[in-house]
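Example 514, ligand 3-methyl-2-oxobutanoic acid.
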Amino acid sequence: MPFPGLSPIVEKVRIFDTTLRDGEQTPGVSVSPEQKLQIAIKLDELGVDAIEAGFPIVSEGERHAIKSIVRQGLHAEICGLARAVQEDIDAALGCDLGYIHLFIATSDIHMKFKLKMDRDQVLEKAVWAVDYAKKHGVQVEFSAEDATRSETSFMKEVFQAVSQSGADRLDIPDTVGYSTPDYISRLVADVTTISPLPISMHCHDDLGLAVANTIAGINAGATCAHVTVNGIGERAGNASLEEVVMALQCLYKRSHGIKTELLYETSKFVSNAMRIIVQPNKAIIGENAFGHESGIHTHGIINNPLTYEPISPELVGRKRWLQAGKHAGAHGIRAMLEEFGLKPNDEQLKQILERQKGIADLGKSITTSELLSIAGKIMKNSTFQEKFQLRDFHTVTGINIIPTAVVKINTGDKDVISSEIGVGPVDAALKAIQKIVSQLEDVKIREYRLESITGGSDATAEVVVKIEDSKGHTISSRKTGEDIVIASVQAMMDATNKMILRKVILSGDTISTP
Ligand code: KIV
Ligand code: ZN
């Protein structure tokens, strides 16, 4: 298929990951040295070519983390950031780094208001810093910070001078994400005329163009993309690794070293470690990226996934899912039920659809287990009823009080009561549910996420609970509500019911009663 802008260049694109440096500069984020090491190992498994492990001058903990990453002996090259000042370069050298990312701003606004230096001083400092670092035998990537807002002739003068001083790579940062693909293309083409060094693109997403700008740079002759997992980073973040890689691979047929099937897993790992939630509609790794609700779409997907999916979910380590929402159609609902071995006839399917749409019209989202339960009632098959019905629960919490929860759950033929304590009311309530459920299935909570969707203390929160059974199969459920304890309990109940139903249906067993 012909794509506009298809580049004739075939060189493999180098992926320079800065999740641990620019990504960690995300407001409010800080990770421990041990977590940094774990993330570096994951990035290495993913196949990135270089890892910017941090900014050595910032703290003792940062230097400790960088040293431990260097010592790990990963395949990726490990790099550290330094300003064009001796103490930064010395701090980087002190971490045993063999690769330093040196930067100094070249835009008038940064030179005047931040550096308080004139052009001659900046030029001199850049050359001195590259020279100093090179004398210590390290590889140097030089960034002209705020390059896209710099006067091009001055930026080129600096690039030319540092190239002559022995820099190994040049980086063009769009520091405040204020550039366009057209401008970046021209800029990169221009820089290739004054230096033979490989060029990197480092784009921020302030106007939502980081990925497009990165790709424009690559198509114009840059060979390396600075990216972060999930696009995290200062302000609106950086170009996201997964989007850049998949766009380069799918649309521009460029090669890279990333194992794309590990993208989702890596994204989850980074999101959990850094405690930055990924927006559901984020390309490639967002929860909804391969989810389908509307009848027209699910019908198309069932006939041929390519109708509404540009790439296969498995390519990026994901699975598609269908949702029984208000826009769902007969084909989608039938496919969802068939996944659980249920084969309604046309009349039954019509009734299931009507009931399900009625619930959705009340503004309630319908979960898979609720759908199965509706189908079970209509098909007069008690196997497909929800196993556990929450009768009631209450929690107690406060200062100088041990958070406690009591839940009453109907397990088919009787009500069972259980109580538990926990670190808070949610923990106590979920443990109390687990206690009852464990009589039938050993359920472990693998993931719990809570996110406020609206502002204010009366905000609507979204809770995601992922549970795992004794065989390691996981299932998750998402609930929204104004009361986080209730939403958490509902999500836990739903996930549990789904797990039991799936197990029973797939094994052909009947449900026993604890
Ligand atoms: O965005 C930026 O300009 C940077 C520099 C340190 C390269 O992150
Ligand atoms: Zn940056």
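Summary: The chain has a mean pLDDT of 90.
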